[in-house]
Amino acid sequence: MDSNCEGSHLVSEKITPVAPPLPAPATSSYHGSRVRGYCCVSTATKDLWERLFDEGYRADVFVNTVNGGIIYAHANILGMASPVMKGMLKNSKRRDRQRSISIRGVPHDAVRVFIRFLYSSCYEKEEMEEFVLHLLVLSHVFVVPQLKQECMRQLEQGLLTIENRQKERTRKSNERKIYLQLYEAMEALVHICRDGCQTIGPHDKDFKANQVPCKYAACKGLELLVRHFAGCKLRVPGGCVHCKRMWQLLELHSRLCANSDVCRVPLCRNFKEKIRRQSKKDEMKWRILAEKLLRTKTIAGEPFFSWALASST
Fold it and tell me: Which residue has the higher pLDDT, 109 or 27?
């Protein structure tokens, strides 16, 4: 009864409740861009977006890049992050409920870093240093202002210095040498398994006492690795360091082999079957490695894919 009476007294005197204060203007920013309210995104949430990109869960877009590369993505995320991509997706043709767009003219890894940023606004320092100019172009073309501001900030902080350019050239030169050595190991592996070399080779090979020196520089080291692999008691992936390296060489060979049905390299066909069951992330990782090997071989001026074609004959 008291509350009812008090309420009628307030109404009779027409007392209006005081309105709450208006919200203050947002002042938080991301390198100059205004945001609404406060950002409370946890590390777990960022990791979730990273996993969505890495694993390609229910991806419905294929992003085609140079040299046949493919990046799996989601149309809703690409369309919301870039108005240009939204238009591209709208005009793209559906095939089995999936769409396809192309981003060429820049390295595959640069496109991967760009798409990843659209998901989580994250990047690796080394990747930003390597692809900052490519990312700047992509952010301009596809109208991604946050990434563009970040690229410009990185450039202003000194990524374009002469010292950094020299470091980048040295790094790429060392990387090219490693890939070339790995490619030579692939050649030597096919040579040993198909033709035989010195004292090691296929069971039906007739070895002669005096053979001409082997022309493959990596053959001797690979011969020792094959002998160890054949006799090691810990010959399982992750068990022995040397055997693990041999497993990796065998899987990489299967990625490059032109015809596993007639190939004499052990387990070539088995790894081909394994490829079909691999996750999209693992598949892309090996595919990028194979592309870099072939690209390095082409840069070095030597026959492109000649060893793989020879192994299928």
Answer: 109
